[in-house]
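Reviewers asked in the last cycle whether our approach scales beyond single polypeptides. To address this, we selected a multi-component target totalling 343 residues and predicted its structure end to end. The input consisted of the following lines:
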Amino acid sequence: METTLIISALKLVGYGLGTIGPGVGIGLAAYGCCVGSARQPELAGRLFTDFIIGAALAEALALIGFVLAFIL
Amino acid sequence: MSDVNPLQMLQTPGAGGETPLEELQGSFDPTYLAGFFGTGLTQYIFWMIVCVILTLVVVLVGGKRLTLIPTDKFANMVDYGYDAIRRNMGENAIGEGYEKHMPLIATMFFFILISNFVGLIPGFKTPTGTLSVTWALSTVSFFYFNWQGIKARGGWGYIKSIAPSGLPKVMVPVIWFFELISLMLRWLTLAVRLYGNMFAGHMVLGIFALMTSVFIQGMIMSGNVLFGLPPIAWMLFLIAMYALECLVAFLQAYVFAILTSVYIGGAISTH
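The resulting structure, written as structure tokens, was:
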């Protein structure tokens, strides 16, 4: 009982740690997108598409953590 | 009766032998509404069928009423939505020759958008809140963009194009391998992103609603008016989260559609 509780708690801690990197990454991507489109508003659409791709790549790690927390 | 602890009530079993938290979690499990031949129709699949019909009705009615000079508000709205997808996803993300792929992307966008918003109506279930539906959607998208890539470049050409061109010869196998993993992960991430956002959002809404009701129950049982204050705060949180969920519902449909079109664009671009 005690061991399973510790394991499930550690899964949540691991997932929480796994979200730090993607969180910082997506934050940086959003910062770059905002600054870029403030300086060159005519490129905003293109920058937003690139931002979504970058965010998707960074988010993949968090999603893998989410899946692992479920299946392990 | 001043020793009523509302938080304790979350842990005490109710009439059904389950604690309120377990009951909330259980309401997210797929349950069979009707079973036949060893399989069955879960509530998620039932709502998926409803959403498919709803999408068809919206799009067909919007398309039927379309005129050159827009006077109909509904048709105008659908037209505007399609036009926005066409501009943002077609022209920006796919580039040349995007008209061919618009039917798939627009269908996916409208279906996911309607599914996400249907789930926000109390008493309804969101079909995208289960992994099997999002997995099917991402499988369609994954096979479609690979097939389009193979059609545009040929089988061997597409395999070679996984690694970006202009690399030193020694690095090509290593980079190719990493790019292949990243390509395969698109399959997983497309499905899990949509599912995770929808499931987690609805779980948060459920927990806030549960806290509101538990504190109101505590107020009634203890007769203590002070217990009436937390439900107001929980209710405000709930409304704020609901507004956020409306944004997330739109954003996830948008992200799914734009990622599909970006992947198609990457697979078919000839430079």
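The mean pLDDT of chain B is 84. We regard this as preliminary and will revisit it once experimental data from Aim 1 are available.
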